[in-house]
Amino acid sequence: MTASAAYEVANPGGAAAVLVLCDHATNLVPETVAGGDLGLPEAEMGRHIAYDIGARGLALALAELLDAPALLTRFSRLVIDPNRGEDDPTLLMRLYDGTIIPANRHAGPEERERRLDAWHRPYHAAITAEIDRMVAAGREPALVSIHSYTPRLRGRESRPWHVGVLWDKDGRVALPLIARLRAEPDLVIGDNQPYHGELEGDTLNRHGTLRGLRHVLIELRQDLIATPEDQRAWAARLAPILAQVIAAS
Question: What domains sit in the chain, N to C, each tagged with a CATH number?
Fold first, then answer.
């Protein structure tokens, strides 16, 4: 595994025509951002507002089982959200699920630009470079983006889905994946739930839709992948289904 300040690369020699992505892999706040402290207590930084709980371990396990390279962020979504376009108003959050982010309250355009240069842009440049490398090697990749979501937002109803499959205009991977997962009797599967896959400028729009690449975003409910054992178990369940769906797409 190799790493830069903004991202890490796992299984760089993976032979599959798949690229695994994890936009919200960690709750790390770099020292160069507010001294490494956004002004939130540890309990808040451990919530879904700071990162996608369990997503990193699941992404790494999937990359290993699929024999695919993976790119994962090394900064909290509260530093700057890599799964947003640069003109998105939620790129740098000041209030998230009822929590004020003190170090972001007065972050102006210069600070926003600095964080884009340091964290957001290097991650996306690395994705572009990896896709270009794989295409040049004759392995046009299918993009598999791994996220997780909280079972309940504050003041909202519980979310019933075990897995959400998000997609926009390209259903080559998403639609057969939804069908396969819905055939599992113990699973409730969301089709563009709990979020919709249509978000201009997000990671899969930028690297998938705009480049014409097959892609899918998979959301696991966080309580299902809270431990390393759970993450490995879900990776083992999803990997063969993903491999078959991608091979047929």
Answer: 2-248 (3.40.630.40)
